[in-house]
Amino acid sequence: MSSLFGQANGDDPKVPPARRMPRSNMKDRIARLRYVTLVFLSGCVALGLVTWLCLELGLEAVGAESLYLIVIVLVSLLDSFAVSALLSLISVFCLDFFFIKPIFKFQMQFKDDMPALITFLIASLAVTALVRHIRKLGEAQSEQDLLLDLTHDTVIVRDMIGEITYWNRGAEELYGWTKRDAVGKNIHDFLRTRFPLPLVDITDTLVRTGRWDGELIHTKRDGTEVIVASRWSLQRDANGKPHATLESGNDITARRRAEELLKQSQATSLAEAQKLSRTGSFGWDVASGEVFWSEESFRIFEYDPGVHATVDLIIQRVHPDDRARMRRLIDFVTDTRQDFDVEHRLLMPDGSTKHLHVVARAASDESGDLRFVGAIMDVTATKQAEQQLHEAQTELARVTRVTTLGELSASIAHEVGQPLSAIVTNGEACLRWLGRETPQLDEVQSCVTSIISEGRRAGEIVHRIRTLAKRDTPAKMPLDLSDVINDVVILTQREVLNHQVALRLKLATGLPPLLGDRVQLQQVIINLVMNGLQSMNANGNAPRELTIESRQDDDGHLVVEVQDTGTGIEPENSKRLFDAFFSTKPNGMGIGLSICRSIIEAHGGRMRASNNAGRGATFQCSLPPLQDAA
Ligand code: ADP
């Protein structure tokens, strides 16, 4: 490579095959010997001819010397120094024999003729060595040109004023200009180079470090542009002075375009994915207050993408009921530099509500300023689905309650029938007391008081039944667990009697209140009582006992337990009891326990079932007291 910059070195790879024989190769050695012999013989013939010509023309020794020298130079162009040296020696003998007196004898005047012959010999050897050196330089240069032409990369050499001095075949192929077109031109004008940095900066780096690489845009002969990955190296002369720059480069236009396309398609896919998943992304630079939104984020907030996003703009959209909470959150996370994960609502200009789930990670930029990056998920559809599911569950629970009431109808009829017959009996007695000659008004008063009290009792039962059957939205209020159990006992006591079951109540007094929906909790206990009664249907002579207990456990939870002496739970069913539609009863729907569990969990509690040590099973619900629930 260095010979491109005016020096030649290295071996002689471009010598014809016959002349660079590896010693090991016998065939090549013979061919080489043959060639050298041929050249030598040709040289001898040429010397003979020159001698004959000189004798014919009657030339003196000086004339013959010149012609011999020409022959020697020509032969040295063809072969090695050894052949030329040998021919020089032969020429000396020929000069002595044919041209130095006495002629045709190998005799001479040492003093007069010897210096001339030695001068001739030295001159011929020097010329031969020089010719050989020049020839080798040329061959090395051609060899390097050939090698540089083999590479697909462009290799261009320019001097310090930018004039092209070398242009390889790769450059010809890429740019469409031949070596002849290019050499001598100013490279940057010729290729209309566009630099990634100011040229002075690039030159500065090149001079300082001896190298530069970067991407350049060049214009080809046909006017199209190419992006070239270019590597520059500075060449210095023996004194360290820069004297040329070698630029090698390769065409990366296709790669860059493919990358560009990939980038575009990734950006498009990302935008598309955000759109499909209704998830936008954002960045928030706390120090400057700048907020960066993806296209989808603008869509979620229903702001024009041209709008300059700020925290205030976001707060404007936040639902008024969530605004104070969001402000507190923003203050908190900016103070503590914490990640956050929050759900809040937006109130849109058309009055609709959107539910968002926002997750963000706190990070610091190079200068330590706080930034948040995160995702905004529009979960409105999920929330609506959850709401619908909740409504469906509430309705299912109501329907189940009504079904249970159907099962309790005999007991209910009895409960309502008893006060009614008492009312009738009291009414008749009233009439009798009034029909006396002297109406017994104090008796009448006592009967009417009784009628009113029985009427109230019947009214209360009807009210309870109506409440259970009503389509009310769940409403939580402070409740006494034992009160709720008592309500259930009134509604189910007849059913208990019908099943010939002994009911035992172990109700704690003075329990702390819990926060709950009365109707829903009644429903849970009714369900557990009815299941307990049914489990004892096949008890035969075995005792039929149902115990309902309320208490506060060691953790402070309020517990209601319904224990029976029925069949107990089959071990293989224990894991599925609370699954919807699991039933072992011929006409069972299998949703009672699943509703019970969802009601208890909605109250922040837990439900479990286990077999008793003796007969039967115990179902237990534990609920947090009002204090904890709040
Ligand atoms: P269903 O009463 O319609 O079967 P539930 O969800 O109330 O639906 O009960 C599911 C199943 O749990 C019952 O079929 C029964 O196998 C079992 N199970 C419920 N309560 C008891 C109990 N007290 N004793 C034994 N098994 C019970």
UniProtKB/TrEMBL annotation:
Tell me the membrane topology, using the record's own terms: Multi-pass membrane protein
Query: PAS domain spans which residues?
Result: 140-191
Record key words, sorted: ATP-binding, Kinase, Membrane, Nucleotide-binding, Phosphoprotein, Serine/threonine-protein kinase, Transferase, Transmembrane, Transmembrane helix, Two-component regulatory system
**Subcellular location as annotated:** Membrane
UniProt cross-references to SUPFAM superfamilies, sorted A to Z: ATPase domain of HSP90 chaperone/DNA topoisomerase II/histidine kinase, Homodimeric domain of signal transducing histidine kinase, PYP-like sensor domain (PAS domain)
Protein name per its UniProtKB record: histidine kinase
- InterPro entries named in the record: HATPase_C_sf (IPR036890), HATPase_dom (IPR003594), His_kinase_dom (IPR005467), HisK_dim/P_dom (IPR003661), HisK_dim/P_sf (IPR036097), KdpD_sf (IPR038318), KdpD_TM (IPR025201), PAC (IPR001610)
Question: What is catalysed by this protein?
Answer: ATP + protein L-histidine = ADP + protein N-phospho-L-histidine
GO molecular-function terms, A-Z: ATP binding; identical protein binding; phosphorelay sensor kinase activity; protein serine/threonine kinase activity
Task: Specify the species.
Answer: Caballeronia glathei
Looking at the record, the residues that make up the Histidine kinase domain are 411-627
Query: Taking the first listed entry, what is the main subcellular location of this protein, grouped into a coarse class?
Result: membrane
